[in-house]
Amino acid sequence: MIHIDNLGKAYNAVKVLDIEQLEIPQGQSFGLVGNNGAGKTTLFRLILDLIQANSGQVLSKNIAVHADSQWKNYTGSFLDEGFLIDFLKPEEYFKFIADINGVTKEELQAFYNDFADFFGDEILNKNKYVRDFSKGNQKKIGIFGAIISQPEVLILDEPFANLDPSSQIRLKMLLKDLHQKKNLTMLISSHDLNHIAEVSERIVILEKGQVVKDLFTSNDTLEELEGYFNPEAAVKAES
Ligand SMILES: Nc1ncnc2c1ncn2[C@@H]1O[C@H](COP(=O)(O)OP(=O)(O)OP(=O)(O)O)[C@@H](O)[C@H]1O
Q: Signal peptide position in this chain (predicted)?
């Protein structure tokens, strides 16, 4: 589905991403982890053709994303607040996305029903512009906006960050459900190892722009991730 081919990105001659080959098959839930500055957002920005690579390319359904915008018809994403239209109210923003994607009123209502608990009493009927919502609630608006376009590929950068614990748990359930029911290809980055292990079938660790681990999720994955990011604690636990 998504194929990374010799992808390189540098800023001021410093290489921040360097991935030889990475294949994300259709229907996979793919988790991306790595310390601050590891290159996670850069990789997502390259996949979404928001920045230009210095070398290599990203293919979506075998077509280079920088050469043809076909992929935009089936890809939903939310990386940051820059993806929002901040002078609209949430309902106007959602209707705008629904209209350009041919989502019917009934389909949109079904999404509202599914996301009622996730939204709580915080998002709808507030008579407030997107820009006036809290960071966490803006994130909820952005995630919902990415999902209602009914994409085949969903890309979310740190979706759990800024969300309260109940919302994090609800989001995990919603993502798992979407992935199972719609065979969604999901690319999600997170610093929360528990959450990412729970929603991903596969987890890639980036370090200084390079893939250093590529794991298929099992019962041992969380321990392996914790061991990687906190090796001293893992050694102590063993002794
Ligand atoms: N526009 C830019 N100009 C210069 N350097 C940049 C730019 N964008 C990203 N970088 C650098 O690229 C590297 C990778 O950044 P990136 O945001 O992809 O990391 P990340 O893994 O998403 O980090 P975090 O977990 O902190 O969000 C960092 O060193 C960052 O400073």
A: none
Question: pLDDT for 131-158, tens place per residue?
Answer: 999 999 999 999 999 999 999 999 999 9
Atom 28, ligand 1: residue with shortest CA distance: 37
User: What domains can you pick out in the chain, each with its CATH number?
Assistant: 1-74+153-161+184-239 (3.40.50.300), 79-150 (no CATH)
- Residue at 186: amino acid letter: M
3-state secondary structure of 181: helix
Helix residue ranges, H only, 6-67: 40-47
Whose alpha carbon is nearest atom 2 of ligand 1? 11
Ligand 1 center–CA 64 separation, angstroms: 23
Q: How far is the CA of 72 from the centre of ligand 1 (A)?
A: 24
Q: Rounded to the nearest 10 degrees, how much is the dihedral formed by the CA atoms of 61, 66, 70, 71?
A: 60
Contact (CB, 8 A) for 197 and 29? no
| Type of residue numbered 119 | F
Task: Quote the ligand 1 centre to 209 CA distance (angstroms).
Answer: 9
